[in-house]
Amino acid sequence: MPQVKIVARNFMDMVASLPTMKLDMLYDNSFICEAILRSLPPLAKKYVLQLLYIDKPISAKTMEEWVLPDGFSKHKVAIDRLIQLRVMTETYDRKKEATYQLNPKFQFNLQKHIVHGGVLPREPMPSNITVRLPSLEELEAYAAEQWECFLLHLISSSEAGKTTNMSSSMMKIFQRGLLSQRDDREPSRLTESGFQFLLMDTNAQLWYIIREYITNAEERGVDSADLIAFLLELSFHVTGKAYNINTLTDLQRSIIRDLSDLGLVKLQQGRKEGWFIPTKLATNLSISLADTTSRKQGFIVIETNFRLYAYSTSKLHCEILRLFARVEYQLPNLIVGAINKESFHVLSAVVIWMCGLQIISFLQQNAHPRVAERIPSVPENVTDQIRLWESDLNRVEMMPAHLYDEFPSKDVFEAACDFAREYGAFLWEDSKRMRLIVKADILNEMKEFLRRQKQ
Amino acid sequence: MTPVSSKLYADDVSLLMVLIDTNPYFWSSMNNNTSFTFSKFLSHVLAFLNSILLLNQMNQVVVIASGYNSCDYVFDSSTSSMQRAECLLEKLEDFVDKDESLSREESVDGVGFSLLSGSLSMALCYIQRVFRSGPLHPQPRILCLHGSPDGPGQYVAVMNSIFSAQRSMVPIDSCAIGSQHSAFLQQASYITGGVYLKPQVSDGLFQYLSTVFATDLHSRGFLQLPRPVGVDFRASCFCHKNTIDMGYICSVCLSIFCKHHKKCSTCGSNFGEARKQDPSASDQRR
């Protein structure tokens, strides 16, 4: 049995958790086969390639002979993953030995790919129709701007409730779970996951949003398999080329419109026809959806005296830093700030449960190249202090409770204690003076219980 | 030209330099003896290149053709996007024409040698450029698909390339497609920690390539790969380019000679009188 637990941590886990029928349907599309193959662990990829032209089932024993003793755990993970994604099927022969065979559709599609090389999902439009296409740099700037705009919207709506130029219906979905709104008058606040979201790298953020989008699609009655298929297909388009929007189905057109808000594609309208231009965000989709081992150029230098220098012109970076550091002054390309206990506590007021580890990993991931060479890239005293501040905040935990006293007899008191323990709501007892503190959740049950004891 | 524009790397991202043997004399001899022709060979290689590029979107493949007189880059996956096969074949044709025009003299005895040393150095230069492009780069490795016999005249150049590959931790995988084993390639793979393989059935070349040579450096730690059985460590002498078992070695620069000389032709140091028939004087077995 597969031992890898299905936690939809990335896109492919989500694909793996699809029902068998849908998964098999997905493999009709060669782009999905390609994307799935690329998402596999290195060893699993290797096995697929090795088995690609073998039509007979291969016994598990034979495959085990391929690996060195050291790699056995990796082998197991690879095999489990392949079975989980139904790339490989496991059957037992007469001698009850496990044999594996590649999914025929998957095999056929990849064989085709290897013989003919990659093909484009659809032909780009000829350049005489699309007159003024943005250059790659412009496109990248556009994507970054749209994305930043979306992130800023998260922060600013949590602070001031400002509106941006984005269509709000889709924004609601994208922001679900990231912002919480207690009531309509109060501006929505960043939740814990929202805060963590801001500290993630772009690919991880993109994945998070897409996941929300897919789960939401199911609620709207859109087949998630179709949606996944299209998203993966989109990632195989060439960045910066224009594709005719009329080649899409209605569903795909509505998806494209939603994604253009995020900067995954740029929509343009010509005299007669409209077209979409995938940006880097879209073509990176299958990468980010597979693994998030990507890195960007960092910009943060943090010193042992808790001062923080961020070489960035981005307003977003400034806003993120403001979440946990006191920004002292800002030069055109430099933000100077400091982390101290106060700024940390302010943050904890905004975000109910925040995680010091998140901040540390954000600082490490975005370390300026000059500091990134050093190990550790964030000074140890700073990381230690952040952990201490965090544990300081978590030292006292508050929860509503009730105090019960003046029990008629020792027996009743003991019985009440046991009752509370059974519910897992017991907090404290003083058996000498017969006093008991129980969580507020089970007040009614306690009342009921004590009334019965009296009778 | 920047080799790779964006720098996002997992540990199985590889840069594969493929050196293909385009020595026309070798391939015509293969035509006569076996059914494995150059076009068959190319179709196997193309499928292999496609599969490498399929495995990871960040993978990069560079193909260098080593001909009889020259060698050149014929394909780079970072510059050409689609229609790989057409792109490669076109360049390869140009290369073969140019290579042919360079050979003037008709007197080629036997199969002749292909310019392995040249293409190895070109591959290493390319890798050096990738190394210098930034702190993040794909894991490079070299794959020699070589069939021509070893040219003893290239011994020094090939050995130098091998040692420079060893220094920069670039494994050289080699696949001997001809009928004989290649001592150069055996040594290259042995010294750099690559894999040497001589396929038994050349028609199944793709399966050999995908099973053994598609393995990225990260996975090599966990997989059973062909291990060297016997490596031919014989050297060529510097004076007559003969492959020798026993010879004389300069004690200063380690140059190898088949005969006794008065002066080292490489570093110019003067040798003393060697006592004849005395193996302990200055000669060594290698």
TrEMBL record, chain A:
Q: What is the first-listed, main subcellular location in coarse terms? A: nucleus
The answer, when asked if Transcription is one of the entry's keywords, is: yes
Q: Name one GO molecular function term.
A: double-stranded DNA binding
Q: Which UniProt keywords apply?
A: DNA damage, DNA repair, Nucleus, Transcription, Transcription regulation
Q: Where is the Transcription factor Tfb2 C-terminal domain?
A: 384-451
Q: Where in the cell is it found?
A: Nucleus
Q: Spell out the protein name for this chain.
A: RNA polymerase II transcription factor B subunit 2
Q: Which organism is it from?
A: Capsicum annuum (Capsicum pepper)
Automatic annotation (TrEMBL), chain B:
Q: Could you give a single Gene Ontology term from the biological process aspect?
A: nucleotide-excision repair
The source's domain of life comes to: Eukaryota
| Role, per record | Component of the general transcription and DNA repair factor IIH (TFIIH) core complex, which is involved in general and transcription-coupled nucleotide excision repair (NER) of damaged DNA and, when complexed to CAK, in RNA transcription by RNA polymerase II. In NER, TFIIH acts by opening DNA around the lesion to allow the excision of the damaged oligonucleotide and its replacement by a new DNA fragment. In transcription, TFIIH has an essential role in transcription initiation.
A GO term for molecular function = zinc ion binding
InterPro entries membership: TFIIH_Tfb4/GTF2H3, vWFA_dom_sf
Q: What's the name of the protein?
A: General transcription and DNA repair factor IIH subunit TFB4
The entry's localization annotation reads: Nucleus
Q: Name one GO cellular component term.
A: transcription factor TFIIH core complex
- Please provide the record's keywords in A-Z order: DNA damage, DNA repair, Metal-binding, Nucleus, Transcription, Transcription regulation, Zinc, Zinc-finger
Q: Which family does it belong to?
A: Belongs to the TFB4 family.
Pfam families given for it? Tfb4 (PF03850)
Give the record's subunit note: Component of the 7-subunit TFIIH core complex composed of XPB, XPD, TFB1/GTF2H1, GTF2H2/P44, TFB4/GTF2H3, TFB2/GTF2H4 and TFB5/GTF2H5, which is active in NER. The core complex associates with the 3-subunit CDK-activating kinase (CAK) module composed of CYCH1/cyclin H1, CDKD and MAT1/At4g30820 to form the 10-subunit holoenzyme (holo-TFIIH) active in transcription.
